[in-house]
Amino acid sequence: MPTNSNDQKPGENEIIQQPGTPITRPFAALGRKAIGWVDNLGAATIFLAKAVLMIFRPKQIPGIIQQVYYIGAKSITIIMLVGFFTGMVLGLQSYHALVKFGAQGALGTLVALSLIRELGPVLTAIMITARAGSAMTAEIGIQRISEQIDALDTMRIDPLRFLISPRIAASIISFPLLTALFDLIGILGGYLSGVVLLGVNAGTYFHRVQSSVEMKDITDGFIKALVFAVIVTTVCCYQGYFTHTRTDSYGAKGVSLSTTSAVVLSCVLILVSDYVVTSFLI
Amino acid sequence: METPLIEFQNVTKRFGSRTILDGVDLEIYEGHITTIIGKSGTGKSVLLKHIIGLLSPEEGTIMFRGKPIDSLKKNEWDTYRNQISYMFQHNALFDSMTVYDNVALPLQQTTNLSKDEIESRVMARIEQTELTEVVYKYPSELSGGMQKRVALSRALVTDPTIVLFDEPTTGQDPIRKNAILAMIAEYQRRLGFTAILISHEIPDVFFISNRILALYDGKIVFQGTADELDSFQHPFKDEVIQSLEGFQEELTGLYSKRHFKVRYQSDLSRKSREETYAVALFTLEDLETIGNNLGHTTAQEIIRALGAYIDKHFGSVGGFSTRHSINEFVTVLPYSDLDEAGRILKDFAKDFQDQGIHSIESVAQDSMDSAESIEFTIFAGLAQGKPFVEMESVIEFAKFRQEEIARFQCELRR
């Protein structure tokens, strides 16, 4: 039966001639992947730079406040819950390790420094990625496939200014604040398991927290939170914004794949950048 | 010769290996309503997106007032783009915003108007599109037709000078379709913008269009008026026009223009050269006033009621009718001479005054506020034709002889 050419997707029925020999083809494919990756990195950097510059354009404040509400205020409950149980399990594990050396008095130091330097910024960023980052990708992706972003263009409203800049600004505000909240609640969680349940002296616990934590620990934690804010928001917004350029899937399926990619990539980049930033700060 | 406002010269657009636009040449003139017709999936929306710059051609040039748009300086490009508004086929409304916020968005984001000024402009458009009751609802809570009207309000709220409508009536019932087309025509007259429409509503869209462009196989195969399209001989006409234009006109249930002509020719072919027939032309005056005062939907309901009454009355004596223009109906009485037709028309006028008025009054009064009253008039004219005389000239003569047959003054009775 003859096929109707109108029903064919672009490129369908084309015979693609792979260049090179069977030995060189895997390298060529690897090279194409690498070039694609570098291309994407460059595009994401330009995307971020433009969006950051547009934060300072007029009429941005209401959008930023709205996004602080979505990204920040609405994440408070989950951050408190995760922070509390992280602190509790940290207190529990650390107590049983320290008690072997008779050093259970150092529990406050261990819990506080672990949270403020590492676990607070990293787990907060991962939780916000799961809650707000995925929502950003899905929302922007749906706006892309339903032509809402094209509609902004036709109305002479820059989509980067309207959709991306407020989210980046809101993340820069929200991530450090949520990290601070996570740290605080985590320390209280450590207190509950270490002091209330396992019998460590309360005065010793808080004294060790106070004496061991320096201002540098707190600022380093905040620096990490800011770096994660920029990474998570850029990755999630970028994946949603360019969901229509995916070649592996289209429409709603494309948005779901973009959302998955955004969350996975954000989490990986959080951990990779955590090591890089820590190595610079330490 | 008038310089086109927008001109495509040999514009080609490909997606992968598929050529969508294949050397398109077209002209769009200022102040006109230009309608692009063609089969689904032939690139009409792609063509429209080139005008607004959402897509760029692979080959060819798009000119604005005789100047290629790709050579416009930034400020010229900004000026060009600021004049254009676009109504998307699938509306592209922001589903997390209310109707009010959707309509207000372009004013809030691109102008320095005060909050009060924005509110008054937005509410004016919302009232004109009969959306007052859903102003704080979200698009997902509205019917497809209402969403379409929200998109229409948003497209017009900035008072653009060029408006692109991508299938503005899709998913509407016949009355709403015609109401939206009437609204576009009215705004176009009032605001003077250039309208470019994509539509499948044949023949309804022809009533409001100054020019028709036919896209077929990636090329523009016809540019001209709806009347010129009648005599256009091309496979496009069989494949597109005749498939889209039904047997009956959707709004009124009368013959479509094409089937009216077929019936006319078939009936007259049986007559000798000396036999006569009568043609009546009915005009509902003040349609725009009715639309402004009672809403375009009510205006279309009145048109439908009048059409139904004409069909009922003249159909019973062997006549057949069609909608001739947005507010005119033509009836052919193939077996009547002028005297007999005059008597039939007199009966019609009396019958209409006695009974027909009630159906129209009830439609009108449903849309009236207590303080309102509205007056409109129906004119009719008769002419006699012979088989060898062009029908259009007989209709013209009937128009010339039109006189008032009914006047309605509607006031709300409480």
Shape of chain B: globular
- Radius of gyration of chain B equals 23 Å
Low-confidence stretches of chain A: 1-15
Average pLDDT of chain A:
90
Percent in helix of chain B:
40-55%
Structural class of chain B: alpha/beta
Alpha-carbon Rg of chain A, integer: 24 Å
Largest sheet of chain B: 6 strands, mixed
Biggest chain-to-chain interface with counts: A-B, 21 and 27 residues
**Helical content of chain A, roughly?**
over 70%
Unreliable stretches of chain B: none
Total helix count of chain B?
A: 13
N-C termini distance of chain A: 69 Å
- Order of neighbouring strands in the sheet with most strands of chain B: 6-7-8-3-9-10
Describe the structure.
The complex is a heterodimer of chains A (about 280) and B (about 425). Chain A has about 280 residues and is mostly helical. Chain A has helices at about 25-55, 60-70, 75-100, 105-145, 150-155, 160-195, 200-210, 215-240, 250-280. In chain A, helix 3 (about 75-100) packs antiparallel against helix 4 and helix 4 (about 105-145) runs antiparallel to helix 9. The longest helix of chain A has about 40 residues, at about 105-145. Chain A is globular. Chain A starts with about 25 loop residues before the first helix and ends with a helix. Chain B is α/β, with parallel strands linked by helices. Chain B is built from 13 helices and 15 strands. Chain B has helices at about 45-50, 75-80, 100-110, 115-130, 145-155, 175-190, 225-230, 235-245, 255-270, 285-295, 295-315, 340-365, 390-400, and strands at about 5-15, 20-30, 35-40, 60-65, 65-70, 85, 160-165, 195-200, 210-215, 220-225, 275-285, 320-325, 330-335, 375-385, 405-410. In chain B, the strands form three sheets. Chain B has a six-stranded mixed sheet, sandwiched between helices. In chain B, a hairpin with a 2-residue loop joins strand 4 (about 60-65) and strand 5 (about 65-70). In chain B, helix 3 runs parallel beside helix 5 (about 145-155), helix 6 (about 175-190) crosses helix 11 (about 295-315) and helix 11 packs antiparallel against helix 12 (about 340-365). The longest helix of chain B is centred in the last third of the chain and has 29 residues, at about 340-365. The radius of gyration of chain B is 23 Å and the shape is globular. The model of chain B has no long low-confidence stretch (mean pLDDT about 85). The interface of A and B includes residues 147, 150, 155, 157 and 162 of A.
